[in-house]
C-alpha cells in the first residue's frame, strides 16, 4: 500500500488555523453554536434598594415583537393596535374590568392609554361562493359580511401597548394548560350459530305425497307439508347471498317426497379497538373526547288508529365518549372529574307494522357509564375498567309439535344463537404543560430509535 501523501498547502493551512485558534472556523457543520463556547457576559451589577432601577430597553420594533397584530402609527410614540378576540369575550363586562385592574397604564391620572372592545368588529365574507373572475357580491347583500370576531382597540405609547399586552396575556393565560392523554381499549368477542331450513322454491312444499288424485278428489289424506324457517343471514346455493353451508336434500320413499334446503353457520369474531385521543385544555375547562359511529334506524313519525306506522330514516350516534374536567392543585397535582360512557346497538324491538303489514322494528341502545373524581400527579395514569357487557340472544322459530319431534325438528324449526362479550378500558393521563409545544405532530409517526417522546 503506497504511503498517504498530503499536499503541503493543506498542511500549511491546518497549521495556520491551529496557530491562530481558528478550529471553530475550520469545522462548524451545524453553525457557530456547535463550535467553541462563547464567553459568558459579565454579570450585571447588583441592584440595591433605594437606587434608581435599571431602564428596560425593548429590542426590535413593535411590529416585529407582535407580528400578528395590526398597528397604526400616529406619531413618534403614538400607536393604535387592533387585537382579535373570540366573539362575546366581554359579554358580561368582566373582561375589561380584569384587564384594567392588571394594567396601570389604563388607570394613570395623566394621559392614560385607552382600550375598548368593539363587539363583532371583525367581519368576513361568509356568503355563497361566486365563480372565479366574477365580482364578489355587494358587502351590503344579505349574508355577505358576517361578524366572526371581536376587536380590542388599544391606543397609547409603545410601552403602554406592551403593558396592555402583558396584562392581556395574564388575563387569558393566567391558568396553566393541561394535556389529557387517553387510551381507549375496546375488546369484543362474538360467537354465533344458525340453523334453518327452507323449501327449494315457493311452489314446492317440504314434504309432498305423490300419490295420484282421482277425478272426484279421492286420494291420500296428507297431500303436502310446507313452511319456511330461514336464518337471519339467508341462504343461497350459488354463494352470491347468505353464508354458511347450504345443502339440498331430497328423499323419495314410496309416494312421499322430501325436498328442502338446510343451512348451517357458525361464526366467531374478535375485535380489538385501541384509540389514543389527546387534547390540551386550560385549567378548569372540560376536555371532550369521543369516538362514535352513526348507525341508521327507522324512526316512527306517526301512528294511525288502525295501527299503521309512518316512518323516516334517522341516525343515532353510538360509541365511546369521555369527558375530563381537570383542576391543577398545588405544584403538580391534578384533580380530575371523569365521566366515561360506552354505547352500542342492542336488540330490535317490535313497535308496529307499516302500511303493508310488515313488522316495524327499532333498535335499543345499550349504554354503560362511569363517573368518578380523583387526584393524581402530573404524568400519572388512571385506569377505568369494569365497563363490561355480556349479551346472549337465543331465537327459535318452529311449528308446534313437529318442531319438538327428534329429527323432524330440523325440518320444522330454525335456531339462531349469538353471544357478544364486550369490555372497555380507559387509561387517562394528565400532563401539566409549559409554554413549549404541547403535542409533537410526528412523535407517534416516526421514532426510529424507540426513544419515546421528549421530556417536558
Structural class: mainly beta
Poorly predicted residue ranges = 8-40, 442-456
How many helix segments? 5
- Separation of termini? 54 Å
Largest sheet, strands/sense/barrel: 8 strands, antiparallel
**Helix percent band:** under 10%
Looking at the structure, what is the overall shape? Answer: elongated
SS strand fraction? over 45%
SSE sequence, one letter per element:
HHHEEHEEHEEEEEEEEEEEE
Question: Average pLDDT value?
Answer: 76
Radius of gyration: 39 Å
Number of strands: 16
Plain-language structure description:
- This protein is mainly beta.
- It contains five helices and 16 strands.
- It has helices spanning 8-19, 23-26, 62-65, 94-102, 158-173, and strands at 70-75, 78-85, 114-125, 145-156, 177-198, 207-209, 224-225, 245-253, 256-275, 278-282, 287-303, 309-329, 333-353, 359-377, 382-398, 413-433.
- Strands 5, 6, 7, 8, 9, 10, 15 and 16 form an eight-stranded antiparallel beta sheet that branches. It has a four-stranded antiparallel beta sheet with strand order 1-2-4-3, covered by helices on one side.
- Mean pLDDT is 76; it is low at 8-40 and 442-456.
Secondary structure layout plus pairing:
Blueprint (H helix, E strand, L loop, with lengths): L7 H12 L3 H4 L35 H4 L4 E6 L2 E8 L8 H9 L11 E12 L19 E12 L1 H16 L3 E22 L8 E3 L14 E2 L19 E9 L2 E20 L2 E5 L4 E17 L5 E21 L3 E21 L5 E19 L4 E17 L14 E21 L23
Helix pairs in contact: 4-5
Amino acid at each position: 500500500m503506497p504511503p498517504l501523501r498530503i499536499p503541503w498547502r493543506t498542511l500549511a493551512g491546518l497549521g495556520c488555523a491551529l496557530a491562530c485558534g481558528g478550529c471553530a472556523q475550520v469545522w462548524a457543520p451545524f453553525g457557530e453554536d456547535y463550535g467553541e463556547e462563547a464567553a459568558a457576559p459579565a454579570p450585571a451589577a447588583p441592584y440595591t434598594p433605594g437606587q434608581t432601577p435599571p431602564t428596560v430597553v425593548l429590542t426590535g420594533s413593535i411590529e416585529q415583537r407582535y407580528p400578528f397584530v395590526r398597528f397604526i402609527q400616529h406619531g413618534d410614540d403614538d400607536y393604535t393596535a387592533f387585537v382579535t378576540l373570540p366573539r362575546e369575550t366581554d359579554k358580561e363586562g368582566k373582561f375589561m374590568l380584569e384587564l384594567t385592574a392588571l394594567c396601570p397604564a389604563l388607570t394613570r391620572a395623566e394621559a392614560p392609554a385607552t382600550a375598548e372592545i368593539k363587539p363583532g368588529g371583525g367581519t368576513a365574507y361568509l356568503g355563497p361562493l361566486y365563480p372565479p373572475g366574477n365580482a364578489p357580491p355587494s358587502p351590503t347583500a344579505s349574508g355577505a359580511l358576517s361578524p366572526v370576531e371581536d376587536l380590542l382597540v388599544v391606543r397609547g405609547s409603545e410601552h403602554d401597548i406592551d403593558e396592555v399586552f402583558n396584562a392581556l396575556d395574564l388575563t387569558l393565560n393566567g391558568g396553566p394548560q393541561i394535556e389529557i392523554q387517553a387510551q381507549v381499549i375496546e375488546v369484543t368477542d362474538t360467537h354465533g350459530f344458525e340453523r334453518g331450513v327452507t323449501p327449494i322454491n315457493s311452489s314446492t312444499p317440504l314434504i309432498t305425497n305423490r300419490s295420484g288424485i282421482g277425478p272426484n278428489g279421492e286420494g291420500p289424506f296428507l297431500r303436502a307439508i310446507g313452511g319456511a324457517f330461514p336464518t337471519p343471514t339467508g341462504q343461497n346455493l350459488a354463494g352470491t347471498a347468505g353464508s354458511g353451508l347450504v345443502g339440498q336434500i331430497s328423499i323419495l320413499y314410496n309416494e312421499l317426497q322430501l325436498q328442502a334446503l338446510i343451512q348451517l353457520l357458525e361464526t366467531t369474531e374478535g375485535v380489538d379497538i385501541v384509540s389514543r385521543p389527546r387534547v390540551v385544555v386550560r385549567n378548569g375547562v372540560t376536555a371532550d373526547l369521543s369516538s362514535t359511529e352513526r348507525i341508521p334506524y327507522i324512526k316512527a313519525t306517526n301512528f294511525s288508529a288502525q295501527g299503521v306506522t309512518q316512518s323516516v330514516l334517522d341516525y343515532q350516534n353510538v360509541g365511546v365518549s369521555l369527558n375530563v374536567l381537570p383542576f391543577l392543585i398545588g405544584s403538580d397535582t391534578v384533580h380530575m372529574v371523569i365521566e366515561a360512557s360506552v354505547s352500542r346497538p342492542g336488540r330490535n324491538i317490535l313497535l308496529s307494522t307499516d302500511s303493508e303489514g310488515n313488522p316495524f322494528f327499532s333498535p335499543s341502545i345499550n349504554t354503560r357509564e362511569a363517573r368518578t373524581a380523583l387526584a393524581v400527579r402530573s404524568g400519572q395514569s388512571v385506569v377505568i375498567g369494569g365497563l363490561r357487557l355480556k349479551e346472549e340472544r337465543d331465537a327459535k322459530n318452529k311449528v308446534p309439535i313437529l318442531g319438538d319431534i327428534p329429527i323432524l325438528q330440523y325440518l320444522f324449526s330454525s335456531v339462531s344463537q349469538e353471544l357478544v362479550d364486550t369490555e372497555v378500558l380507559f387509561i387517562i393521563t394528565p400532563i401539566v404543560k409549559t409554554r413549549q409545544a404541547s403535542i409533537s405532530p410526528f412523535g407517534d409517526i416516526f421514532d426510529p430509535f424507540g426513544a419515546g417522546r421528549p421530556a417536558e
